[in-house]
Amino acid sequence: MLNTTSKTLAIAALLVASLAFAQGNSVITGTVSDAATNKPIGDLVITATSPALQGERIVVTDAAGIYRLSQLPPGTYTLRLSRESYKPFTRADVQVRVDRTIRVNVQLQPESLQSEEILVVGKAPTVDVGSATQGISVTKDFIDRVAFIRPNATGQRSFEDIAQAAPQVTADRYGYGFNGGQSPENLYLVDGVQVNDPTFGSLKTNTGVGGALLPLEFVEEVNVITGGYMPEFGRAGGGVLNVVTKSGSNDLHGSVWGNWWPGALTATPNTVRNEGSSLETTTKRHNTGDFGADLGGAIIKDKLWFYGGVAQSFDRQRVTRGVRRFLLNDDASDFLYDDAGNIRTEGVTSNSRFDDRRAFTWFGKLTWLIDGNNSLALSVTGSPQQRVAPMFAPLGYGADLDTTNSTTASLKYTGSFLDKHLLVDATAGWNRTEQARLPNDGSHPGQTTGFAGVPQTQFRRNPPLSIRDFEELPAGVADLCEPAGFIASKRVPYIGLNRYVMACPVTGGGATYNIGGRGFMSESEADRLQARVNVSYLFQLLGHHIARAGADVEWTQYRVNKAYSGGVSLIDLPAVPGADFLGQRDQSYLANPDDRVPLLNVRSTPSQFTTGLYLQDSWTILDAVTLNGGLRYDTQQLFASNGDLGLSLNNMLSPRVGIIYDFTQQGRSKVFANYAVYHQNIPLQMADRALTGEYQTYTYNSAAGCDPIGNASKGCTDKANAVALNEDPLAPSPNYVRFAAGRTMVDPNLKPTAKGEITAGLEYEVISNLRVGLIGTHNWLFNAVEDMSNDEGATYFIGNPGSGLAKAFPKAERKYFAGTLYASKAFTDGWLVQGSYTLSSLYGNYSGLFRPETGQLDPGISSDFDLKSLLVNRTGFLPSDRTHQVKAYVARDFEVSPTVSILAGLSYEGFSGTPINYLARHPLYGNDETFVLPRGSAGRTPWTHNVNVRGGLQWKVTKEQTVQVTLDLFNLLNLQEATEVSQRLSTLEILPASVPEGKDPAEAACLSGNVPTCQTILQKKVNGATVPVASTDLNGNFKQPTAYQQPFSVRLGVKLSF
Amino acid sequence: MFRTISFALTASFFAGLAMSGCFAAQPPPQCQTVSTQDFNGNPPYLAMLKQTSASAACTEGQKLASMLVGVQDYVPPGGGAAKLVLRPGRLVDLAQGNVFKADIDAKNDCQAKKNCGNCGPDGGNPCLFVDDPVTRSDPEDPEGKKLNALGGFARAPSSGICAASEPLVASQNFEARTLALVDGGMATLPALPATFSFSDVKVITTFEVPGTAFTAKLSQTEGACVAAYDVVAFYPSIACEADVDCDPNTDLDAGRNTGSGINPDFAPKCDTDLGFCVPTVDVTKPGLPKLP
Question: What span, in angstroms and rounded, lies between the C-alpha atoms of B86 and A975?
C-alpha cells in the first residue's frame, strides 16, 4: 500500500463542505385549463406522488395555468389536481426518465358538469420536450426483461454495459464510444460523482478487472446521453452516462438473487491459429456466477430512508495450453501439408489451469427529507476486484495478480427556496481508485526478492528455440520434439516467411516465449475530490425560464509505485544462439558517460486541478417552442510529481444552443436542432509519464554473463556485463543509450482537445408511450492534443497537430456523420420496444484517447502523430467506423394466472464490419506502424449478428413476495464470426505506396487478387536500398481472424423479492 | 444552510479560479540536449566553425570548417548537479585514424598524393599509405575517457539558454606509433598532444529549439597548431549531395520513408562544400530569422 494521507482529507472535506444534491433533474410541466372555456386555471394545487419519490411534491399553477414540477427523481408518477369549483382529477402512470422534461397538459371539467373524480391512466405523453439531448434512458423494466447485457469479465452485470442499447453507440476495447468518440472520452457519473479512472479516463482495463463497478441490481435508472447536452455537463469530449442508484422507501423491500453461467452450457469457442509457435492456448468458460442481496426501507417514516446491498461475482475460465508439433517429412527437409496447404499438426501434450476473476460490490445509501424543501442523500459504494491469470512457463512467476478497488462516496443536497422558484442542488464526492499489477508471489515493485526482482526475458530467437529448451515434456512424448540445444538449419518458404523446418519451435517467425518476472508492475491509488453546485431559478419573462448556473471544482492526485521486474526487460537478439540480451526499459539514468544509476522502482505523485463554471437558460414560449442556450467555462492544470505545473489548459469556452418545437403543443412531438462545443479533459497519466518524465536506458548485456534460462538473470544488468551498443565512435556513452529522461515540453500555444457537434431531429409519439424518431448527428474535431516530434524522434513536445510547434503536421481529423431511425416504447401495458437503425461514417486520422489498432491507452501521448513519417496514408475510415448498426430489443409479459406470469425478451444486434488496414514495419517505430496503403484499403471485417433471448417465470407467492426464475440464451445461433483479423501485411519495412490516381489501392498493388492491370508498386527497404516486395515477404496470416464472437451460452437466474 | 453552502462553494470555486489564473502559460522547456547515439538513430550535432585565429603551424588539413560533435546531457531526476558532454569529432578522428586516408589501389604509387591534402599526421608530410585507419591512444587514458569534454550544466534555462558552468575540455596525448606501410616500408607517427576546449557553451533551450542547437567558442590545439573558432552547432548532422537529402519530410519517390530528422523550422539545404545539410535560419535567435 502506498503512503496515503488523503483518505482522512477526503472525508474531512466531505464533512466540511456539507454539500448535498438533487435526487433528480427531471421535470413535469404543462398547462391546466378549463374544459368548458379553454381559459387557464390559476392557483390550482397539483400533487405529485411516486414510489420513486420520498414524500410528495406540491406545486400551484400560475395565472397562465402553467405548472412545473422540477428536480424529480425518475419514476412513474401520479398527478392529482384539485381546486374549488373543479372536481379532483388524477392522472396516473406518468413516465418520467432521468434528466427529461415531460409535458402533461390537463383540461379540467367544472364541478357543475362533473360529479366524480376523473381518473386517467396511461395517456401521459413521454416526449422530452425540454431538451435536444440525444440518447436513451434505461430502467429496471428494461434490464429485467431483455438479455442484451452479458456479464463483464468479473461475472457482474455492471451499469456501463447499458450503453450498448443506445443508438450511435459502438463497443470499443475499454467500453462504449458515443457518436464516433471513444469510451475514455465519456463522463461516467454515479449519483453525481465522476467515477472515470482519473489516470486513463476509462472504466475498463485490458485485464478485465478495473474501474467502478455497480451491479444493475443497485441501479434505478441509467441515462445514456450521446450528444446534444447542455453546459451543466462538462469536461467530456464524448457522452455522459448518468447513473441514479436505488433509494429506500417507506415500505421495507428487499431481494436475494443468484445467477449461474455454467461452462457446460457454453459452446466451444473458435480457436485462433498461431502459425509460428507449437504452443496453442484456448480459453473456455468453466463457471461464472454471481449472487447478492439488497434491502431498503424507512428508518423514520416519511423522513429518513435507507437502501443497501452486497453482490459477489466470480468468473472461472479454463485455460488449456497445448504443445502441437508441426509434422515433418521423413528426412526432416520440409513440413507435411494438408490439402489446403496448411502445415499438418499433431497434439503432443497439454495441461490446463484456471484464470480466475472475482468482484465484490457493496452499496449503501441514506436519504433524509429534512423538510418539504430540503433533503440530503449520502451514498457510498465500493468494488474490490481481482484476477489471477495463469502463466504456463515453468521458468516464470506462476500467475498474474491484478487487483482494483474503486470506492465512491457522494453527499447530495437538494433544496428549494423562494416558494420553489429557486432550486439548489449540490454534490460533494470522493472517488478512490486503487490498482495493482503484480506477480502472484507476494512481491511488490521495487523489491529485489521474489519475482518482482527477476527481469522478464522475451525470446524471439530465429533459428527457433525448441519447447524442450525451456520445458520438460512427459517421457513418452518428449522425443516428438527437438531436444534442447537443437539448431535448425533447413528453411522453406511458408505464408510469407522463410521458415525453419522444425517440429516444436516456440520462438522465431513472430513467435515469442517469455520467462522470468512479471515485466511491468505497478501499484497505484488515485483520489478524486469533487464539489459542484447548481442553482436553478424559475421565472417568467415572455414565457417560462429555467435559468441555471453552476460551478464545480475537482482535485485529483495519483500515487503510483511502478517498476519493471528486476529493473529491466530483456530481449534476446533474434540472431544466433549465444547472442547478447538487449536490456530495454532499464529503469535507470546516466549520471556520467556510461555511468548507469539503477532505479529499482519509480514513485510518482502527479495531480490535477480543474474548475468549471456555467450559465444556461431554457426558455419556453407559448408552450410550443423551447430555446436552450448556455456557455461553459473550464480550466485544467496538470502538475508533475514534484508539484511543478506541467500543462495548463485555460479559457475553455463551450457554447451550446438548442431549439425544440412541439408542433402538437401537447407534449407528443418535437422537432429540434442543437449546436454544441465540448472540451475534453486530459487524464492524469500524461502528468505521470510525460510531464513528470521517465528515466530509462537501453544496453546490450553479454550472453557470457547473462543466461536467463540458467536463471542467472540477476547478473545480466551488472555494469561489467554491458557491451557496446554498436560502432558509434562519437557517442559519449558507447554502452548505454538514454531512452527517456525528463519532462516533455508543452507547446506554449496549446489548445485543448475540442469537438463541435450539430444534431437535428424529429420525434413523434405515434401511440401512447411509443415514440418514433429520426435524428442526424455530425461532429468534428477542432483540435487534438498529442505528443509529436519535429526531428524524427530526437525531441518530443505536446501540442496540436497542424498548428503551433506542430504546424508541419497534418491537422488531427475525426469526422462523424450519422443518421438514426428509432422507435422506443417504455414498459407499459406489458410490453416494451427499443429499436434503432444507424447509418454512419467515421473518417479521419485520429481515433481519440486510445489507439484501437494496438490498444495503446496513453491519452494525449500515444504513438499517434509522433512523427510526420508515421502519417503517410493514415487518413481514412477509422477503426470504429461501422456503416450499419441495427439494435432491436423487444419484451412482453404474459399473464398465466393472477399470480404467475411469463416474461419474454428478445434482442438482436447486427453490425457491419470495421475497416482493415495494410500494416508493415516502420523504421523507427517498429511493427504495424506503417500504413502501406491508405487506411481501410484492405476491406472490412464481416457483419456480425447476435440474437439473445431471455425467458422468465414470475410467481407472486404472496402480495409482497415474488419469485422470479430467468433463463438467458446468449448468441442463440452460435454465430462465431471473426470480429478482428490480422492487419500485419509484413514484418518488413515496406514503404507506404502512393497509388496511381483513380485506381483502387489494393488492386493497383496486386493485393486483392491478381488483377491483370495491377503492378508491383510496393517497395521494401533492405539495408538502406529499395527493392520490390516479393510475395514471400507477405504475412500469410494477413486477414486471418484473431478474435471471434463469443459462443452460445446459457445463464440461469433466480431472484426472490419481498 | 443554503447561505453557508453557497458561500462555501462560491468561495472555493473562485479560490480555484484564482489559483488556475496563476498558471496561464505553459512551463518553459527544461535543460536538455539530444542524446546522440547511433543505436537510437540520433546522429551527432554538426558544428559550423568560423575561424577567428590560427597559428602559422596549422596546415590546411587542420583548419576546420565544420566538425561533428557527439552530445549528451546528464540531468539526474529529482535534483543534483547536471552535466554536459561534448565529444569533438576531430579528436575522435585523430584517435580512430580517420584523418589518414588509405591508398585506394594499395599500389603505393602515390598517385593519390596530389589530391591528398591531409595525408599525413601533420598535413604536408609524405603520404603514409596503410590499409586500415591508424588508431592512436593516450597511455594515460587507455579507455579514451577524455575524448569526452565533460563539465557542469545548468538544470533550468535562463532567458532561453542552458549554459555549461565551465569550459568543456577534451584532450589526448597520443603516443608515437610505428606503422607498417602497404608496400612493406615503415614509418613513424610522432607523439601528438591534442586538446579541444569549448568555452562559453550555451545550449539554446526555447520552445522552437529545445536543446537542438548550441553556441560556443572552441580552442583547438594539435601539436604546434593552435586555432580558435566561433561555433554554431545544431542537431542533426545529415550528409548530403543535394537539397533533397535534407528534406524533413518523407520522400517516397526517392525511397525515403522517414524525413531527414532536421526540424522543418530550420529550413535546411545542402551545403555541398561541407557535404552536410545546414539551416538557412539563425538557430540561435528567437523567431529563427532567415540568415543573410
Answer: 64
Query: Which of B6, B70, B18 lies closest to B44 in space, CA to CA?
Result: B70
Query: CA A1000 → CA A14, A982, A985, A1004, distances in Å?
Result: 61, 21, 17, 6
DSSP E strands: which ranges in chain B?
45-54, 66-74, 82-88, 149-153, 161-163, 168-174, 177-180, 186-189, 192-205, 210-222, 225-234, 269-271, 276-278
**Dist. CA A713–CA A697, nearest whole Å:** 18
- Distance, in Å, from the CA atom of B116 to the CA atom of B112, rounded to the nearest integer, reads 6
Residue B74's region, left for phi above 0, alpha for psi from -120 to 50, else beta, is beta
Q: Which cell numbers hold the place of A152?
A: 463483464
Task: Please name the member of B12, B68, B74 whose beta carbon is closest to the beta carbon of A590.
Answer: B74
CB contact (8 A) between residue B252 and residue A644: no
Alpha-carbon separation of residue A42 from A45, A88, A712, A752 (angstroms)? 9, 15, 89, 50
Q: Is A23 within the bounds of a domain?
A: yes
Phi, psi of A1011 (to 5 degrees): -75, 135
C-alpha cell at A331: 528426412
Q: Collapsing DSSP states into helix, strand and coil, what is residue B13?
A: helix
Nearest-CA distance B119 → chain A (Å): 21
A77, part of any domain = yes
Reported as a single tens digit per residue, the pLDDT across B136-185 is 899 999 989 999 999 999 999 999 999 999 999 999 999 988 776 655 56
C-alpha cell at B187: 614509418
List of residues 6+ apart from A496 with CB closer than 8 A: A986, A1031, A1032, A1033, A1034, A1035, A1036, A1037, A1038
What percent of chain B is helix, strand and coil (3-state, nearest 5)?
A: 15, 35, 45
Q: How many domains does chain A have?
A: 1
A residues 588-617 closer than 8 Å to B (CB)? 589-593, 597, 599, 609, 611, 613
CA distance B201 to B47: 12
Query: A329 to each of A316, A340, A392, A493, how far by Cα in Å?
Result: 41, 17, 30, 15
Residue A615 falls inside a structural domain: no
The pLDDT value recorded for residue A121 is 44
Check residues A153 and A359 and name the one with the higher pLDDT. A359
Distance CA A1000, CA A1014 (A): 10
Of residues A693, A732, A791, nearest to B261 (C-beta): A791
Residues 6+ apart with CB under 8 A from A573: A461, A579, A580, A581, A582
Residue A835 near residue B238, CB atoms below 8 Å: no
Asked if the structure places residue A688 within a domain, the reply is no
Question: How far apart (Å, rounded) are the C-alpha atoms in residues A821 and A911?
Answer: 15
Decide: B86 and B149 in contact? Cβ < 8 Å. Answer: yes
Chain A (616-675) residues lying within 8 Å, Cβ to Cβ, of chain B: 635, 637, 642, 644-648, 650
pTM, full prediction: 0.88
pLDDT-derived band at A412 (thresholds 50, 70, 90) equals very high
The answer to whether B162 and B153 have CB atoms below 8 angstroms apart is yes
Q: Facing residues of B66 across strands?
A: B48
Helix (H) or strand (E) holding A1001: helix A1001-1004
Q: What is the H or E stretch that residue B10 is in? A: helix B2-21
In this structure, are residues A81 and A41 in contact, taking their beta carbons and an 8 Å threshold? no
Q: Which residues of A429-462 are buried (b: 16+ CB within 10 A; e: fewer)?
A: bbbbbbbbbbbbbebbbbbeebbbbbbbbbbbbb
The CATH number covering residue A55 comes to 2.60.40.1120
Whether residues B145 and A738 touch (CB distance < 8 A) is answered with no
Structural domain that includes position A22: 16-125
pLDDT at B131 over 60: no
Q: Which residue has the cell 470480429?
A: A979
User: Which amino acid type is present at position A826?
Assistant: A
- Cβ atoms A348, A325 nearer than 8 A: yes
The DSSP letter of residue A995 is: P
